[in-house]
Amino acid sequence: MTACICGLTEATFVGEKDDRTVGRCNGCGLIRTLNPPAKYVEFYTEGDRYHAERDGQIPYRKRYEHDKVVGRLRWTKIMAGMRVLDVGCANGAFVALAWEHGAAAEGVEINPNMAAWARERTGCPIHASLDDAVGPYDLVTLHDVIEHFEDPVAVCREIRSLVRVGGRLIVDTPDAEDPRFAELGMEWHHLKPREHLWFFTEESLRRLLGQAGFLVESVDRPIQGKIVAYARRHRGELAGQLGSTYPLGDPAARLA
User: Fold this and answer.
1) Other CB atoms closer than 10 Å to residue 58's CB: what's the count?
2) Is the pTM higher than 0.70?
3) N or C: which end of the chain has fewer CB within 10 A?
4) Cβ distance 51 to 59 under 8 Å?
5) Rounded Cα gap, residues 90 and 82, in angstroms
6) CA distance 117 to 102
């Protein structure tokens, strides 16, 4: 059984789907996949196992225009002229949208075939990994990505090193507080434990980003079933302690 981001391994059984067991952490209540597949990352990097048509999902190459439309819904709080990095950019639709709105936009996509396709389609830099991205960035975005990371705290801390002081991180992810999750349980379409390892509530997402050195300034739900957190990078060593040391909204935290 994998450890939760709070460090505990003990969890209460929620259900099973796709040969995976889903549980709720007995410590912090975060819902997660308890037994991720072996060689988990290969699901995304090998060929088109993830990006091609499967289980009725439209392949990413055919979702390009649709994803740009969805991207516009996310654009309302992003200003043009910034240096933007979209992590897990897939077909590059959001990268292209950011570029069209005047941002110096780049992407990260670990699947070589998808990265090449996005690079050709957008004309923008698409990096093979975070290691290839050179900060500082004004904004880093994680659109439907954070739930896929085996260690989301470590990745967000790595991202923090790429964000300028005062810069922002935007994270959107399936909303574990969506009423349809409570109604449908394991049949909820966002509950895909083979690829979604974490199912965040607003509280658990705030806690995660706080542990990584960001303070969540606002939360939005512009699309049913999704939660979007708008966070800012803090100054100093205090930042990495915010998630566990300071309650959100504490004036002392804002001075960090």
Assistant:
1) 11
2) yes
3) N
4) yes
5) 21
6) 22
